[in-house]
Amino acid sequence: MNGTSTVLIVVGLFLLGGIYSFVKQQMPKNLIVLLSIGAAMCLVAGVMRLEVWN
Question: Domain locations in the chain?
Fold first, then answer.
């Protein structure tokens, strides 16, 4: 696991926590969808950068 993949996975998990918080605060759905797309992209990019796939 290198530093870039770790950072991407941590940022993705942080954004997932933000999604949970925004849902509890009943923020607009468009903002939640945008945040969830960003979280999914960070998590997928972090997992794809792992050396496990080589």
Answer: 3-53
